[in-house]
Automatic annotation (TrEMBL):
<comment type="similarity">
    <text>Belongs to the ribonucleoside diphosphate reductase large chain family.</text>
</comment>
<feature type="domain" description="Ribonucleotide reductase large subunit C-terminal">
    <location>
        <begin position="152"/>
        <end position="297"/>
    </location>
</feature>
<dbReference type="InterPro" id="IPR039718">
    <property type="entry name" value="Rrm1"/>
</dbReference>
<protein>
    <submittedName>
        <fullName>Ribonucleotide-diphosphate reductase subunit alpha</fullName>
    </submittedName>
</protein>
<dbReference type="GO" id="GO:0004748">
    <property type="term" value="F:ribonucleoside-diphosphate reductase activity, thioredoxin disulfide as acceptor"/>
</dbReference>
<dbReference type="GO" id="GO:0009263">
    <property type="term" value="P:deoxyribonucleotide biosynthetic process"/>
</dbReference>
<feature type="domain" description="Ribonucleotide reductase large subunit C-terminal">
    <location>
        <begin position="12"/>
        <end position="134"/>
    </location>
</feature>
<dbReference type="InterPro" id="IPR000788">
    <property type="entry name" value="RNR_lg_C"/>
</dbReference>
<dbReference type="Pfam" id="PF02867">
    <property type="entry name" value="Ribonuc_red_lgC"/>
</dbReference>
<dbReference type="GO" id="GO:0005971">
    <property type="term" value="C:ribonucleoside-diphosphate reductase complex"/>
</dbReference>
<dbReference type="GO" id="GO:0005524">
    <property type="term" value="F:ATP binding"/>
</dbReference>
Amino acid sequence: RQAPEIFKRLGKTIHASNLCTEIMLPSDPEESFVCCLSSLNLLHFDEWKDTDAVETLTLFLDSVLDDFIEKAQGIPYLERAVRFARRYRAIGIGVLGWHSYLQSKGIPLESAEALFLNNLIFKTIRERAEEASRWLRARHPEDELAEVMERRNATLLAVAPTKSSAFILGQVSPSIEPYTSNYYLKDLQKARIPFKNPFLEELLRQKGKDEERVWRSILERNGSVQHLDFLTDEEKDVFKTFAEVSQKTLVNLAAGRQRHIDQGQSLNLVIHPEAPPKDVNELYLHAWRSGLKALYYQFSTSAAQAYSRDLLLSCRACES
């Protein structure tokens, strides 16, 4: 029902996603799906939104497919993958730094403004990628499916998990996910590095509260700032952690962007272990009814995270 249009026309069936649930492509005895992925850093969305960044990335990923097709030719057991790549040239542009972008602007994730920006961002990416892919189609009339595909790439958007990439690119928030904590120790192969939310750090500095005792209190509360009485209610909302945000809001945001995404999203949810099964079931049904194609991990929380004991099924953005 929600398969990319070209696969509907060709009668291709999508049987499953990849492990991370962002790739939604068909496979059969003749073809094994291949998708070329990359992500845009939303922290800098205002800097690149009016440039050719999306178009350039679209052309780059298409060129990576050319490189794969050329180098994989004749390699045993890659014939099906090469065939799929040549025919459909599927790419998946995703994002990272969504929560960082909102926090840099002082916008709560559970707000009407976040819903608006969510739609604007993914509409912009989709339209720019479609334009670039149509440009490619006009320059490659020799492609096998040129007569039935109005653009060169069967798919354009897929939101993958980006935990490692997000850390490398300035320790921004991963993919479409909220920060799990405002202060924690990052375990790397050769070091344990303390991470302090840079946007919270700047706010504390402005308030004269960038002190060790304040950060210690945040660390002791699993990275939460809800206990800090010198923050306003809106500031506390801006810096809610993954477990403190309404999970229904995350589903609604995902549903809003799904209309612009021809593949899927790696959408994780945090469910407290004491959440009633009925509420969990209702949340999952809500995701399905909202048009989401899949969900990724269901995380739990520790008993110490008292703030997130409720599933928080109400959607504050809908009420505002």
